[in-house]
Design a protein that fits this description.
Blueprint lengths: L1 H17 L16 H17 L4 E15 L5 E15 L19 E12 L2 E13 L2 H7 L12 H16 L4 E14 L4 E14 L17 E10 L5 E9 L45 H4 L15 H12 L34
The structure holds 2-acetamido-2-deoxy-beta-D-glucopyranose (3 copies).
The site of one 2-acetamido-2-deoxy-beta-D-glucopyranose (NAG) has 4 residues, from loops.
Length: 360
C-alpha cells in the first residue's frame, strides 16, 4: 500500500513536469568564460561606452556570474554580473575600445561593477537593463604598491579647477582657430612632491576665434560638434608663479545627425545591439532598456564620474520583461544535467571567470 502511494506521488510528480508543451523552461548556468557568455558581456560593455555621458570608456575585466533564462516567445536573457575597468580613452574619443589602454593601478585605477540583462535573439545581443556602480581603488591599495603615487583628487577642488582653467587658457593661446571651451573635468590628481596638479578634461570648439575672444560666455558650440581631450599639468614655481603644460587631442568633427541629447527621454531608443540597426523593443513595444542620464551639475561626484549616475534603475524593464522570463521557472531538480551547447567541457570553477587585466 505504501508502495502504491509512493508510486502515485511519483506519477503525479512526473505528470506535473511533463504537462508543459515543448521543452522545460528553466534557467541554465553556463560558465562565465563560455564564449557565448563573453559575447553577451562584450555587448554590455559596448552599451556602457555608447551611453556614458562623461568620463572614460570602460573595458571588460571579469565576468562574475551568469544565468540564462528562456524568454517568450523567443530568445534568451543573460543575467550577468560583470566587473569593468576604466581605460584612458575619454568617452568622446572615437578610438576603438580595443586600442584603449587600461588605467593602471599606479594611476589610481577605477573599477566598475555592473548588473545587466542582455537579450540574445536571432544571434544578436541587445541590452534590456543596466545597473552600474564604480569606485576608485582604495588609497591604501595604491600606496601599498606605490607610496608616492598621487591619488585622485576631488574634481571640484579649487586647485583642480584653477589648473584646468590655466591649461585651457594655455591651449587656446597657442592656437589659431576656434576657441575651445570646457566640457567637463574628467580626472585630477594632486602631486604633493612636485607641488603640481595633473588634470584631464574634455573641450569643445566654439564659434569664437581663439585669438579674438573677449567674453567666452558669449561663444556657442558649433552645430557640427568638435570635441577634444586635454591633459595638463600646472606646477607651482618656488620663485612664485606657475608652469603650465598642456597637450590636447582634437577629434574629428561629428556630423550633424539627429543626435539625441542626454536628456533621458530619447536615450532609450538607442539600445541597439552592436551591429544591429534595429532598436531593441520589449514585448510591450516600448524601448527595452532603462537608462538614467542625470544632469551634469548634479552628477558631479567627488573624485570620478561614477557609472551609477549613468546606469541605474531597472524598474521599467522588470515589469516589461521580468514576467516574460521568470514564468517558466521549474525546480532545478527537474534537469540534473543539461550540457552546455558548446559540449561537455569539464569545468572545475565555471564562475567567476578569468581576470583579464588585474584585480582591484
Ligand atoms: C588600433 O589597433 C590596430 C591594431 O593594433 C591598428 O591597426 C589600428 O590602426 C588602431 N586604430 C586606431 C584608431 O588607433
Ligand atoms: C565639492 O563638492 C562636494 C559635494 O558636492 C561639496 O560637499 C564640497 O564642499 C565641494 N568642495 C569644494 C571645494 O567646492
Ligand atoms: C596662424 O594664422 C596665421 C595668419 O592667418 C598664419 O600665418 C599662421 O601660419 C597660422 N599658424 C598656425 C600654427 O596655424
Amino acid at each position: 500500500m505504501k508502495c502504491l502511494v509512493l508510486l502515485l506521488c511519483l506519477a503525479q510528480l512526473c505528470g506535473c513536469h511533463s504537462v508543459p508543451h515543448g521543452p522545460i523552461l528553466g534557467n541554465r548556468e553556463p560558465a562565465c568564460d563560455d564564449p557565448e557568455t563573453e559575447q553577451a558581456a562584450l555587448a554590455a560593455v559596448d552599451y556602457i561606452n555608447k551611453h556614458l555621458p562623461h568620463g572614460f570608456k570602460h573595458i571588460l575585466n571579469q565576468i562574475d556570474s551568469v544565468k540564462v533564462w528562456p524568454r517568450r516567445p523567443t530568445g534568451e536573457v543573460f543575467d550577468l554580473e560583470i566587473d569593468t575597468l576604466e581605460t584612458t580613452c575619454h568617452v568622446l574619443d572615437p578610438t576603438p575600445l580595443a586600442n584603449c589602454s587600461v588605467r593602471q593601478l599606479k594611476e589610481h585605477a577605477v573599477e566598475g561593477d555592473c548588473d545587466f540583462n542582455v537579450l540574445k535573439q536571432d544571434g544578436e545581443f541587445s541590452v534590456l537593463s543596466a545597473k552600474c556602480d564604480s569606485s576608485p581603488d582604495s588609497a591604501e591599495d595604491v600606496h601599498k604598491m606605490c607610496p608616492d603615487c598621487p591619488l585622485l583628487a576631488p574634481l571640484n577642488d579649487s586647485r583642480v579647477v584653477h589648473a584646468v582653467e590655466a591649461a585651457l587658457a594655455a591651449f587656446n593661446a597657442q592656437k589659431n582657430g576656434s576657441y575651445f571651451q570646457l566640457v567637463e573635468i574628467s580626472r585630477a590628481q594632486l602631486v604633493p612632491l612636485s607641488a603640481s596638479v595633473s588634470v584631464e578634461f574634455a573641450v569643445a570648439a566654439t564659434d569664437c576665434v581663439a585669438k579674438e575672444v573677449v567674453d567666452p560666455a558669449k561663444c556657442n558650440l558649433l552645430a557640427e560638434k568638435q570635441y577634444g581631450f586635454c591633459k595638463g599639468t600646472v606646477t607651482e614655481k618656488v620663485a612664485g608663479g606657475e608652469d603650465v603644460a598642456v597637450a590636447c587631442t582634437v577629434f574629428q568633427t561629428q556630423p550633424v545627425l539627429p543626435q539625441p541629447q542626454p536628456d533621458g527621454a530619447e536615450a532609450g531608443p538607442l539600445t541597439t545591439a552592436p551591429g544591429s540597426a534595429r532598436p531593441a523593443l520589449s514585448p510591450a513595444g516600448q524601448p527595452a532598456a532603462s537608462l538614467v542620464v542625470g544632469p551634469r551639475a548634479v552628477a558631479a561626484p567627488p573624485t570620478h564620474y561614477d557609472l551609477r549616475h549613468a546606469f541605474s534603475g531597472v524598474a521599467s524593464v522588470e515589469s516589461a520583461s521580468g514576467e516574460a522570463f521568470h514564468v517558466g521557472k521549474t525546480p532545478k531538480v527537474a534537469q540534473p544535467s543539461i550540457p552546455a551547447p558548446e559540449g561537455p567541457v569539464p569545468v572545475v570553477r565555471p564562475c567567476p571567470g578569468r581576470i583579464r587585466h588585474f584585480k582591484i
